[in-house]
Predict the 3D structure of the following.
Amino acid sequence: MKTYVRTLSANILTPVMRLTGFRFSRAYRRGDTKIHSIVYALVDTVGANMNAERESKLLTLFLSLLASIAIVAAITIALNSAMQYRVNFNQSNITLSK
């Protein structure tokens, strides 16, 4: 039961930790203060840190992929909306026409 409570509380805290960037330090595992000891008894601090880090890496990967798609789309739109010119080679003259 104790393991279940610690794991459940870690899963509940993971999204908040991901958003805020907070990670549990070793002080919780060592029990430096009474509060650290209580938190460590109720929360799987190592698991929460690992879950928050993994989810932040997945979020970073997703956002970079999304940014790449947006850049390719912007370049494609710019190239398609740009005026099209035809290059004409007449003897020694090169001219551009629409």
Notes: Residues 2-97 form one domain. The CA atoms of residues 8 and 82 lie 55 Å apart. The longest helix spans residues 45-81.
